[in-house]
Amino acid sequence: MRRWILAGVLVAVGLLAGGCGTGARSSGAGSExxxxxxxxxxxxxxxxxxxxxxxxxxLIQQVFEGLVAWGEDNQVQPNLAEKWEVLDGGxxxxxxxxxxxxxxNGRELTAEDVKFSFExxxxxxxxxxxxxxxxxxIVGVADKLRGQASEVRGVQVVxxxxxxxxxxxxxxxxxxxxxxxxxxxxxxxxxxxxxEIRSVKEMVGTGPFRAREYVPDxxxxxxxxxxxxLGSPKIDRLERPVVKDAQTRLNMFRSGEIDLLVLERQxxxxxxxxxxxxxxxxxxxxxxxxxxxxxxxxxxxxxNRSFRRAIAMAIDRKQIVEQTLRGLCTxxxxxxxxxxxxxxxxxxxLPFDVEGARxxxxxxxxxxxxxxLELTFREQRPDIKLVAEDVAGQLKKNLGIEVTLRTxxxxxxxxxxQRGEIGFFHMRWMADYLDPQNFLSTMLAxxxxxxxxxxxxxxxxxxxxxxxxxxxxKERLELYAKAEDIALQDAPWVPIYFQRDPELICPRVKxxxxxxxxxxxxxxxxxx
Length: 528
Known about the structure:
The chain is α+β, with helices and mostly antiparallel strands. The protein has helices at 2-14, 54-60, 111-121, 131-135, 141-145, 174-177, 246-254, 268-273, 305-313, 317-324, 354-364, 382-399, 410-418, 440-444, 458-469, 473-490, and strands at residues 34-36, 68-70, 76-78, 81-87, 92-97, 155-159, 162-166, 209-215, 219-224, 237-241, 260-262, 281-294, 330-331, 372-378, 402-408, 424-430, 493-505, 509-510, 514-515, 518-519, 526-527. β19 and β20 (518-519) form a beta hairpin.
């Protein structure tokens, strides 16, 4: 870590200040090819079976892999499985593993490792917050999670390189779920039974990079795995400095200390005016929605439908997007983002209507002078704070409701949110697979594993249940559209904007692969 600090000092003193400098390519080893980009907070976990957030997933996917993966065409493609067969009318998948795939310790991957990993992540002692969300379609997962079975009977080893997975009913989005890290394969001799991975020594996967060093709140270092089954990475090392401050991150890019940076929107205009940086700026649409959430589970006030509608109608989303966020995103007129099957440019979202909001508030019976709301959001992200401040100001102006702001450390925020303990919040849901089920059923149905807010509407549930298993795409989308409109009118969420990421990418970085979900594992990246 001292070498990293020294490199930063040398860059700050001696390199070009006009962006993407030419020094500091390695930490004390000038011949090494190093790709550096920051992570905003320390990883929330080192374990693929535990991860819930996009920043950490980007790190995890460099080290661990699953049977399938996303391609640059946003389609599911073979990965550890070289091919698969769909049997029994869509209820059974027979995966044929690629032979010769090595773990970072040199041992060959077999079907037993796949079964072990699925069962590890469903072990009730392991307490994965995501296994139910992404694996519960598999026969026997629910029993394993409840401690009522010793194995997941829907995952069967057919041969050394063949795994059969059986699900409870045909579901057109099932393969997409297997791209999530909780379906990644871990090395069974490297982990402790029923325990989360907590050190780089336990991070033994099959990915293009292996974990070398982790200094909490400072730095994560991954090194190239030369026996990677898709070919040796073209760089020697990935370095992920933990940099919490947005201005510091931008200064590091300017001085050449990092090679890629996701900008805060407040910095985009200055970058666009900078002749040395403007050509390094790129924009990427992402299938994510930023929203204001209201949780009846945490605060009975939000069980009042009229009160939620009053909040939603008092928020001017267009002003937030066009002024606060400088017009760099798209106003969310629905829940399902662009790029996701079933997205509609105009769904039945509630309009900005101050008088209508005041009528709804009156109908709710809530006296605004007698309540105070607390709007919670993650720390160290200026864009999120700006939106939260704008929402608080609008609710005060338009409804007379006092709103205080509360920031939380990211991991603590996720844990509290997962327990359904945050009543009023601003956050994002990013697609794990490009299907409306991942937004509507998963997040807002009463049976949805990620419905931590406690929203319940039987009509919404019935529409989603039918759509979840329909094999007729036209029918599915019609059902989901009706469900989406119901949720928009009920307003457990107030959609604010669909995500669009501004990124600075140094010209010396070549070979980046990207999809709607973000940049894909970096084994093709070169650094000049």
